[in-house]
Design goal:
With about 1000 residues, the chain is mostly beta strands. The protein has 6 domains: about 100 residues; about 120 residues; about 110 residues; about 90 residues, no CATH class; about 120 residues, Immunoglobulins (Immunoglobulin-like), CATH 2.60.40.10; about 170 residues. The strands form 11 sheets. The protein has a 19-stranded mixed beta sheet that branches. Helix 1 crosses helix 9. The longest helix is centred in the C-terminal third of the chain and has 34 residues. It starts with a helix and ends in a 6-residue tail after the last helix. The N terminus is likely disordered. Keywords: Signal.
């Protein structure tokens, strides 16, 4: 089965890349999986691979000269090909693949494994971070290698300085100082000097440039002025670790009777690190030492305890390749003195062979007399009785720490968050399914955290991902297994699976056993299951179901997440105190109100006097009409409305607006219509329509009615942006932004602005939509009006303003849409202006040198880009004193027609292939047909490639959930992106007549 997973992952990854390829200039998605990382001397360059093996890319000359590879002191064997799947082997990639030279390993490393790679005269060493490979990572090398540990040294030892003449105490003597220094390791940010074990363990102080440095308890050194004493913590022996030195630094290291000193020559090179002749050692005067002949009390020792007994301590060396060894910090352990060994409260049994030790509560002595024990993990306890005395430790931060009081570690586990409500009959509630392309990026889940603190702070809680050694037998539990819900623990969360078949409230919790065999039970979280259609909205919108906030207002987490019935009268009034209505608290997960229909709404929700309501992550279907009146306020945030919103009599609506920080957002769309009646206020908003793009279940719109219709006198406050849908279908127009009826009047207040964009952009629209339709209505006020029409692919561009009516605002920017038959800024001379300054520009036939999207058009999801707004403002500034006349436009940007039989004027450009031949022509040339065919082929190819990617990703999600758990969210995102590309490609191909509806 592993080969299937490997194949599927390759297909999924290839699909991710294909999903990021621009097809026909329509679809784009960035993807990157390999980031280079330059290490010291440019030896290590980058890393790449998959979940079976990985390759560390290195300097070519270095790879060609590699003689040996050691891991934790054991020499590994060179493998004959790159198909490495087990530990103990490596493969030298000498330019056989396109990514260059490197060394390949199986993905079998553990945290803190030490790798040493040698050539004839160089040695490269580094520490691994463990088996944490993630092919989706932005920096694979940094994920697997501790870059701060990288050391590149010459194998030849530093030259020894002259010993000098014999001197009295306190001065340099004849003792060979170089014997105290075994090796110098320089890395990216630190220097480690490996020294004589006894010397390191007796170091009392270190001075650099006559300034005393402080000892740090942990090995993570980043600042000058600190050092760390490594007293045998790793396989390379004792030493002192410093932050980077500077050339000329004078270092003095003191014990109680010795002083070792040297001057730094080259801080980046181990061979020339110490200045020649500067390494000295001298005895510290006996006068400063206590008289050994005098008797002295030893207050630190217990009665009857000798100094030798007091100094006994143990260290633990982890070696995943050989054995895990417990030994004395000084001297050799005498196995005859080992009386009892207890790990995590369990007495260990001696066996004859170290190979029988692992994970079986056993210990053994090797042939060399080493005490081999099971692997220790964080917070594991160890007690050893040696020569009649008991020694107790906790294993923390990769070393044994004395635990004289035998303190026990008490773990706590908590579930954080809440489950979304469910409905009886819901299938595949884990968020993905094999028979459908419906995938949720946020499965129904809560996070799991743990701590070893008795009174934890927020920062003490850590993610329980199941990778650590603190717990065994971790499982999620539900109070009623007959509910059909299966809670599953995986990588720091509990998610829900199964098919829901029972109504009720079910409790879910986590149970685990810690290393001391104690059972830990988390808090319990409720999962609510409802029966669809049973609950009416008026019975649910009550204070008992709300959460009260500090301001005395309320929030409602919608339960159940789908409500189809309102009341007996099918009208419900929103309570005045309800300020927020949440469909969910997770991105891309929505609550649903009403039912799918393209008919007129039959259910009514009233936001009336005193109400100020924000919808968050809601789908409001076509059966629902929302009435905002009598001073009520409605805010739409990350929600979609398929029905109708009617605003009147002081009612106010804001779309894509966050009232808490006064910012325009995105995520909410209008797929129905907003109707503004007398007294309505349209506040700060970014309104865009997806009416023909987003369907209601099986219902698909073919709508070219305006996004907003004005039927009375209304006000615009602050900045408002409105754009019609591009995806016009069945030869309909791109959607108009705004229509003002015979009794309609839009007042744009001072310092306010109204931006209107007709739907229509490149290949998405045949006939561009008008920005503003005046059906006998008026636009007034001291603010700014912008009206930019939509583009038409094969037929007509839209008009900036069409119909009849009057415009009397302070300033206006009006442009017709581009197309084969360009639209007008002003469609007729029945559009009158009164005191309005600004500019009007007719549309044009685009040329190959024109941008794909006009520079003044709103083409992104969020409000128009700053550069779009700046371009419009610049044009208004240039024309600030220029009155706008009714017709024709100030500027005509159409391409001039070439008279038959004459040469083209200099500088004339070809038109876009999507618009046919030059203006006035009626037959497409061969090159244009060829370009269109190529575009169609690219779209079909994109659909096929992304279908393969979806199948591959879903195969992995269903058949190898544990293996792909670290990249699960990214695989799901891949499926979402691929689905979007397929859907967009299908819509375009339908418009081009290549596939049937």
């Amino acid at each position: 089965m592993k080969n299937k997973y490997r194949l599927a992952l390759c297909l999924a990854l290839s699909g991710a890349i294909l999903a990021g390829t621009t097809k026909g200039g329509v679809i784009s998605y960035d993807s990157s999986s390999i980031i280079s990382y330059a290490s010291q001397n440019k030896i290590i360059k980058s890393a790449d691979g998959n979940f079976l093996s990985f390759t560390i890319r290195m300097n070519e000359d270095f790879v060609k000269n590699i003689k040996s590879v050691e891991v934790n002191g054991k020499v590994w064997e060179s493998y004959h090909n790159g198909q490495i799947t087990k530990s103990g082997y490596y493969y030298l990639s000498k330019g056989v693949d396109y990514q260059g030279y490197g060394i390949k390993f199986a993905n079998k490393f553990k945290k803190d494994d030490k790798v040493v790679i040698k050539t004839s005269d160089k040695q490269l060493s580094f520490t691994m971070k463990g088996n944490s490979f993630n092919s989706f990572s932005d920096n694979i090398l940094n994920d697997i290698v501790d870059m701060a540990s990288v050391s590149f040294t010459n194998i030849n030892a530093p030259s020894k300085p002259d010993p000098g003449q014999k001197q009295p105490d306190g001065q340099a003597g004849t003792e060979d100082a170089s014997k105290y220094i075994k090796k110098i390791e320089t890395s990216l940010g630190t220097t480690t000097i490996r020294m004589d074990d006894d010397f390191v363990k007796s170091i009392e102080s270190i001075e650099v440039n006559e300034k005393k440095w402080k000892e740090k308890s942990g090995s993570g050194i980043s600042d000058k002025g600190l050092y760390y004493l490594n007293k045998g913590d790793d396989a390379d022996g004792c030493g002192v670790k410093f932050a980077k030195f500077a050339e000329g630094d004078r270092v003095v290291i003191k014990t109680k009777d010795k002083e070792l000193s040297f001057t730094v020559n080259n801080p980046s090179d181990s061979a020339s690190f110490i200045k020649k002749g500067s390494l000295k050692v001298k005895n510290i005067s006996d006068k400063t030492q206590p008289d050994p002949s005098k008797k002295e009390d030893n207050p630190g020792a217990s009665q009857g305890e000798t100094p030798d007994e007091k100094e006994i301590s143990f260290v633990y060396n982890s070696n995943p390749v050989r054995y895990n060894v417990l030994k004395l910090s000084k001297g050799k352990l005498d196995k005859s003195k080992v009386e009892k060994l207890i790990i995590n409260g369990v007495v260990q049994t001696e066996v004859s062979s170290p190979s029988s030790v692992y994970g079986n509560d056993k210990y053994a002595f090797s042939r060399d007399g080493e005490l081999c024990i099971q692997s220790l993990g964080n917070n594991h306890s160890l007690s050893i009785t040696y020569d009649g005395k008991e020694y107790n430790y906790l294993y923390k931060d990769n070393k044994l720490v004395e635990n004289k009081d035998k303190k026990e570690i008490n773990y706590q586990i908590k579930l954080h968050g809440e489950f979304d409500s469910l409905l009886v009959g819901q299938k595949k509630i884990d968020g993905y399914t094999g028979g459908s392309v419906s995938v949720s990026n946020n499965p129904n889940s809560v996070s799991v955290k743990y701590t070893d603190k008795d009174s934890p702070k927020d920062e003490d809680w850590k993610k329980l991902d199941g990778k650590g050694s603190e717990f065994t037998d971790i499982k999620a539990v539900i109070s009623d297994p007959e509910s059909g819900i299966r809670p599953t623990f995986n990588y720091g969360s509990i998610s829900l699976e199964g098919d829901v078949n029972k109504e009720g409230t079910f409790q879910i919790w986590l149970e685990a056993t810690d290393v001391s065999r104690k059972k830990i039970i988390s808090n319990k979280v409720d999962c609510h299951v409802y029966k669809e259609g049973k609950d009416k909205l008026e019975d649910l919108l009550i204070t008992d179901n709300f959460r009260q906030t500090k301001d005395g207002k309320y929030m409602w987490d919608m339960r159940p997440w789908r409500v189809t019935k309102f009341s007996d009268s099918e009208e419900v009034i929103v309570p005045q105190g309800l300020k927020a209505w949440f469909g969910s608290h997770k991105k891309d997960v929505y609550g649903e109100l009403g039912f799918e229909t393209l008919e007129e709404p039959s259910q009514t929700l009233v936001v009336g006097e005193g109400a100020n309501l924000t919808f968050k992550r809601m789908k409001i279907f076509g059966s629902v009409k929302i009435i905002v009146k009598d001073g009520g306020v409605l805010n739409l945030d990350d929600s979609v409305v398929f029905g109708k919103i009617e605003v009147s009599n002081g009612g106010k609506i804001n779309v894509n607006y966050n009232p808490y920080n006064d910012k325009i957002t995105d995520g909410a769309s209008i797929s129905g219509q907003i109707v503004l009646k007398d007294g309505a206020i349209l506040g700060k908003s970014s309104i865009y329509s997806h009416t023909n793009w987003l369907g209601q279940g099986k219902h698909e719109n073919t709508n070219d009615k305006p996004v907003i219709k004005v039927e009375g006198k209304v006000k615009i406050e602050d900045e408002v942006y409105i754009r019609g849908d591009h995806a016009a279908t069945h030869s309909k127009h791109g959607q108009p932004a705004l229509e003002v009826g015979p009794k309609g009047e839009v007042e744009i207040g001072e310092n306010s602005s109204l931006y209107l964009y007709g739907g229509g952009m490149n290949h998405l629209t045949e006939v561009g939509g008008d920005a503003l339709i005046l059906n006998g209505g008026k636009i007034t006020g001291k603010g700014k009006l912008v009206a930019v029409a939509g583009e038409g692919i094969e037929k007509n561009g839209g008009n900036g303003v069409s119909g009849k009516g009057t415009i009397s605002v302070a300033k206006a920017y009006i442009r017709g849409g581009n197309g084969k038959n360009p639209g007008k800024a002003l469609e007729s001379d029945k559009i009158k202006f009164n005191g309005t300054k600004g500019t009007t520009i007719d549309g044009k036939v685009p040329t190959t040198k024109d941008p794909a999207v006009p520079e003044d058009y709103w083409h992104n999801t969020f409000r128009p880009l700053e550069k779009v707004i700046n371009k419009i403002n610049s044009a208004l500034e240039e024309n600030k004193d220029k009155p706008i006349k009714s017709s024709p436009a100030d500027k005509k940007e159409t391409t001039p027609v070439v008279p038959s039989g004459k040469e083209k004027p200099a500088g004339k450009q070809k038109t876009h292939s999507t618009y046919g031949t030059s203006q006035g022509g009626s037959t497409k040339d061969y090159g244009q047909k060829r370009d269109l065919k190529k575009y169609i082929d690219q779209l079909k190819e994109a659909m096929m490639e992304n279908k393969i990617a979806i199948k591959s990703a879903k195969f992995l999600l269903e058949n190898a959930p544990k293996q792909v758990a670290p990249v699960r969210d990214k695989l799901i995102k891949l499926v979402e992106n691929a689905n979007n590309i397929i859907e967009k490609s299908q819509n375009i191909l339908k418009k081009l007549g290549e596939i049937e509806d």
